Amino acid sequence: MLRYSLRQLEYFVTTAKCRSVADAARKLNVSQPSVSKAITNLEGQFSTQLFIRHHAKGVSLTQAGERLLVDAGSLLRYANDLQQSALDSGELITGQIEVASFMSVAPVFMPALITDFQQIYEGISIRLHEGNQEKLVSGLNSGRYELALMFDLNLPEEISIEKMAAFNPYILLPEGHPQASNESVFLRDMMDDKLVLLDIPPSREYFLGIFHSIGLEPPVTFSSSSLEMVRGMVGQGQGYSLLVTHPHLDFTYDGQRIVTLPLADDIPRVDLGIACHKQIRPTRAMRLFLDFCANWFRQHYPRGGSCRAEPPLYNQSAGSLREAGRAFTPFP
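RESULT FIELD:
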């Protein structure tokens, strides 16, 4: 016999997300003692402490609380999905998905992906979040995010990922560089130049790891967490860069022309996929979104991407031409 309720779990999950009993009570529009009592009852039911109380500084989850949060969030989503399924009439499918995306991938794929998805499943709303890999993994672990578009690079054991596409790294050069007229470039031929490094985890480790895998140590002249800053510095002749994302037009924000060439080195592609926590129970809306993403990437990027991927200029479901500048290949 169950000795706890979905409402108690809702109070627990909201408190964990707010990191404050008082803030959770305000968000739930209930009294603070009601939230405290629900948490105390859960701790008694599970015979474990779920929160550490910090005087005047809110609460933080214990390890037991962290484990329960994932399962509780999954159970609440499933219960809501069950209720919604019973209420749905006709063929309209409703629901909400908390989707996160790696901060540099989000503007590349998510606007078109979400627009195309909601043209088919107009009853499903998507709340979009962005962040670096650390934030995405933390959000998946805590249950704040249900799914995350990210790269399969150094993910912890508790996170699973369904691969959607794979993309090749390439060399970015300023116009007029001695290597710019070549069909491809070996990294060893760039060692007399300075590297402009995309400095955001796990991109930094990924790109430097490529050099290290073939016994090279590139001199870094400049680093930035901004893709466009990296492209701008290369355009101004401050060095070259190693990237995977390739905007459709080879111009920087300040109007400089840049050149992209494939690597002559045999470097494995990097995988892009949809990640989730292994313990999460997928809702109907989540399953539909996952299936849609797999088909979407298969349609628009059937061979992954090289240094320049052909943009999906026409979206048949939308029935309208897309701007060429919307299509990119991603970068880790």
